[in-house]
Design a protein that fits this description.
This protein has 402 residues and is mainly alpha-helical. The protein has one domain: MFS general substrate transporter like domains (Growth Hormone, Chain: A). 77% of the residues lie in helices and 0% in strands. The protein has helices spanning 2-18, 20-27, 34-42, 45-58, 60-78, 84-112, 118-140, 150-156, 158-167, 175-183, 195-203, 205-227, 229-236, 241-269, 271-289, 297-321, 328-357, 360-367, 373-381, 390-393. Helix 4 (45-58) packs antiparallel against helix 17. The longest helix has 30 residues, at 328-357. The chain is globular. The chain starts with a helix and ends in a 9-residue tail after the last helix.
């Protein structure tokens, strides 16, 4: 059920990237503003932090039910967008529920699985997310023959969302949350809902700062690199929508392998070393994808995607593992927010660079100069979490700092 969440969410994310040329043309979005529009959509993660934090008080299960309903409504409404503003608002709201769902899915897996398999489990979630991009690619290949073009692609996504919402009624609460809720003194005060934020800042401020400093550069470059991949292939290399879909379906298999193997390999060799290698590989793949041509494009794209999804899944793991149960959802939400803010900043910056260099590929290439920050922080400063129990990694220590 949690893996299906990732699959459907990434179907929606994949659509915005794949169908960007058609959406841009339909809604008359200027070329220099397309990065800003997609960047603002990503900021839906900001209110998602509130939903994730509430899950630290009322439980993971209830919020997973609420978010799937909200995401369903926003997805179907997106198909009827008439202006860029309406599209941005509806996708902003959809991302709010979507990011909350992903945060909670990661938290549930982290809290339920054995320490030796935690990375593998989170990797499987992300692998199903990569499959969502593949499904989006298949449907996108028909965008030119569907009766309502890109709008039909959003309607298609509603059916599995309704099924998932119905099935999720049987999802049970995690034992770690139940134990933690039973141990704390419950009060009726609304101030209790702000306790996770206070604890996050006071208990492990150093970890929080390092995680944020590493995730922002990764998303600063990665969001632009992913957002413009379909547009770049079609406009710079003459790919048709069907060609793009074919590449995404077959080449995307490497992304699925990357996410699943990154989690499993990190369980065996450690999060830091595998994550460092994945981040470096993603930067190299991005450089080649936006600078080579001809037969070199598919392997460069596969390397970029393989390492991107591998890096992303390990960032998700760290966001849950480095902090205690009492505010684990809140911490994961902050990690998502910083990634989205970095991504939005990257998309805005790409638009400004595009005006100077005149090419999306060259703009993204110049942005890679900041990519070295993330692997350096991860390798040198982040604590190792692989195969350790969550209570050993991040014990509840009251309001002390560490």
């Amino acid at each position: 059920m949690l893996g299906a969440t990732y699959l459907i969410n990434n179907y929606d994310i994949g659509l915005l990237s794949l169908a960007l040329p058609q959406i841009q043309d339909s809604l008359s979005i200027p070329e220099e503003e397309i990065g800003t529009v997609t960047g603002l959509v990503r900021l839906g993660v900001l209110p998602a932090l509130v939903l994730a934090s509430v899950a630290d008080r009322v439980g993971r299960r209830l919020m997973l039910l609420i978010t799937i309903i909200g995401f369903t409504l926003c997805t179907v409404a997106t198909a009827f967008s008439r202006t860029p503003e309406e599209f941005m608002f509806l996708q902003f709201a959809a991302r709010m529920f979507m990011y909350s769902e992903e945060v909670l899915a990661i938290v549930v897996v982290a809290e339920e699985l054995d320490a030796r398999a935690r990375g593998w489990g989170i990797g499987v979630l992300a692998a199903m997310g990569a499959m969502g991009h593949g499904v989006a690619s298949i449907f996108y290949s028909m965008v030119e023959v569907l009766p309502y073009g890109w709008r039909s692609l959003y309607i298609v996504g509603v059916v599995p969302l309704l099924i998932l919402a119905w099935l999720r009624r049987g999802l049970r609460e995690t034992k770690r949350f139940e134990d933690q809720a039973a141990a704390r003194a419950e009060t009726a005060s609304m101030l209790e809902y702000f306790r996770p934020f206070r604890s996050l800042v006071r208990m492990y401020p150093g970890r929080l700062a390092l995680l944020c400093m590493s995730v922002v550069p990764f998303w600063f470059v990665g969001s632009a690199a992913l957002q413009f991949q379909s547009k770049f292939l079609q406009e710079a290399h003459g790919y048709s929508p069907a060609n793009v879909a074919l590449l995404f379906v077959f080449g995307g298999a490497f992304a699925i392998v990357g996410t699943a193997s990154a989690g499993a390999l990190s369980d065996r060799f450690g999060r830091r070393i595998i994550m460092t290698l994945a981040l470096i590989g993603n930067a190299v793949g991005t450089l080649f994808f936006y600078q080579v041509s001809g037969a070199y494009i598919p392997p460069a794209w596969c390397l970029m995607l393989f390492c991107y999804f591998g890096s992303d899944v390990l960032f998700s793991a760290l966001g849950s593992e480095l902090f205690p149960t009492s505010y684990r959802s809140t911490a994961s939400g902050v990690r998502s927010i910083m990634g989205a803010v970095g991504g939005a900043a990257g998309l805005w910056f790409e638009g400004r660079l595009y005006l100077i260099v005149g090419s999306h590929g060259d703009a993204i290439t110049w942005m890679l100069l900041v990519a070295v920050i993330s692997p350096a922080i991860i390798f040198l400063f982040i604590p190792e979490t692989a195969t350790r129990e969550l209570e050993d990694i991040s014990p509840e220590i009251g309001d002390q700092s560490t």
